[in-house]
Recover the amino acids of this structure.
């Protein structure tokens, strides 16, 4: 892979949309983090306008707290769904949450919340201390990710016990409060966290969705009371996934001078005890 840098101009990257390269500037030289009470762990917030894959524009909020070593991102889809992503670097945990609006005229409840918790790898997103320092020159600009990362298909085969969730990440109680009965994770991630010393009481086995031998896809189930294998797809439309380094004659070493932005889609597959908890999953 090519090393990013300031001299890395868009013309050298024909597969990507011709966008200004340093959309956001890390003004590390200035030192002082944004926000009131900076340096005392107060979260810093950045609001950016982003173009969604379907072409619509939405506002995304990015918050970082270098003391808690966490980043959170939130965006509202045009259909009203609120998507949030929380990266907890201290616990190697990331949490996706979807608040899906119900269609009241179809007799659905006001909203449905889902939480998906998986292992965070530290190279997935820029560090929180860099995120805290991100500023944008032009807040009106509509941003589009420079890089589209591959779709990740995840099989969520373990349930997280909400009341024990704090043992996994202190963010879980806030983020997943509305989804207390629908917090999912994966066996492979659980294995890693158990090795890290997380208590096993956090995790509970779920009926096997993976084999899908007995359990049909929700799209094929007519009876709303029947269990089925559900799929939920979400997109992180824009996030700072890498730091860029620049070279200068005045400096002995390359220095951080910006970010590279990414977009990534996720498909979560999980068990639901009733078809009506997965109404968006229609047969194609
Ligand atoms: C969650 O854990 C608590 C404490 O261990 C336990 O009392 C409770 O029954 C568990 N909840 C479920 C749904 O299993």
């Amino acid at each position: 892979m090519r090393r990013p840098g300031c001299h890395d101009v868009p013309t050298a990257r024909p597969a990507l949309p011709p966008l200004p390269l340093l959309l956001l500037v890390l003004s590390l030289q200035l030192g002082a983090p944004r926000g009131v009470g900076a340096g005392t762990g107060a979260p810093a917030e950045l609001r950016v306008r982003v173009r969604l894959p379907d072409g619509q524009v939405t506002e995304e909020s990015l918050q970082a707290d270098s003391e808690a070593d966490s980043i959170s991102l939130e965006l509202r889809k045009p259909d009203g769904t609120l998507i949030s992503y929380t990266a907890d670097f201290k616990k190697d945990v990331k949490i996706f949450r979807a608040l899906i609006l119900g269609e009241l005229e179809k007799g659905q409840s006001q909203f449905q919340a889902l939480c998906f918790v998986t292992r965070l790898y530290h190279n997935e997103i820029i560090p929180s201390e860099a995120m805290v320092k991100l500023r944008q020159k032009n807040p009106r600009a509509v941003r589009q990710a420079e890089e589209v990362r591959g779709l990740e298909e995840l099989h969520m085969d373990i349930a997280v016990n909400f009341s024990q969730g704090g043992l996994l990440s202190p963010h879980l109680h806030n983020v997943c409060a509305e989804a207390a009965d629908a917090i999912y994770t994966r066996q492979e991630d659980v294995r890693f966290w158990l090795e890290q010393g997380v208590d096993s009481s956090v995790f509970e086995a779920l009926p096997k969705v993976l084999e899908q031998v007995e359990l049909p896809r929700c799209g094929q189930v007519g009876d709303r009371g029947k269990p089925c294998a559900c799929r939920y797809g979400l997109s992180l439309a824009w996030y700072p996934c890498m730091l860029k380094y620049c070279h200068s004659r005045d400096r002995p070493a390359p220095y951080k001078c910006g970010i590279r932005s990414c977009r990534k889609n996720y498909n979560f597959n999980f068990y639901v005890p009733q078809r009506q908890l997965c109404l968006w999953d229609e047969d194609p």
In short: The two ends are 37 Å apart (CA to CA). The longest strand covers residues 228-246.
